[in-house]
Amino acid sequence: MSDSGPTSAQRLTLAGLADILVAEGLGMPAASAVGVADRLLDRCLDAAPALAGPLMALLDEAPADGLAAFARRLAASRPDDFAVLSTTVVGAYYLSADVRELIGYPGQQPSPMSVAAEPEYVEMLERVYDRHPGYRECP
Fold it and tell me: What digits encode the pLDDT tens for the residues 24-41?
């Protein structure tokens, strides 16, 4: 993400659009309630900086009123732009520790490999290990 980041107006617009895409319900908070347009947006754009430019352009284009209609138009006629918006919103939403706790997702966990459970993989590694350890320069 650029050093300047999204403006306050862009963040406000994103919060409105995010709540349209991820509304409160079934025990889950709305997107803006967990900070999708704030710190989570920053983390999301740091992880996927290619989203920043297209997202900022969309947020600048969005009308002050009629965000729901704008989101519907994007979904219906500009699927690539809608994908930028929805990927950013949902990606930022699931970065929230509160959301992950509510859905019972502890985050990535180590999963030790069992030799008994993966015999083909171990055999493959043994073949690589047993290969001649020599090195030769490519022509």
Answer: 999 999 999 999 999 999
For residue 26, the enclosing domain spans 8-111
Answer yes or no: is 54 within a domain.
Answer: yes
How far does the chain reach from its first CA to its final CA, in angstroms? Answer: 42
Q: Is the whole-model pTM more than 0.85?
A: no
Q: How far apart are CA 48 and CA 45, in angstroms?
A: 5
One-letter identity of residue 100: R
Instruction: Name residues whose C-beta falls within 8 Å of residue 24's C-beta, 6 or more positions apart in sequence.
Output: 30, 33
Asked whether residue 95 is domain-assigned, the answer is: yes
Question: Are the C-beta atoms of residues 40 and 95 closer than 8 Å to each other?
Answer: yes
2 found inside a domain: no
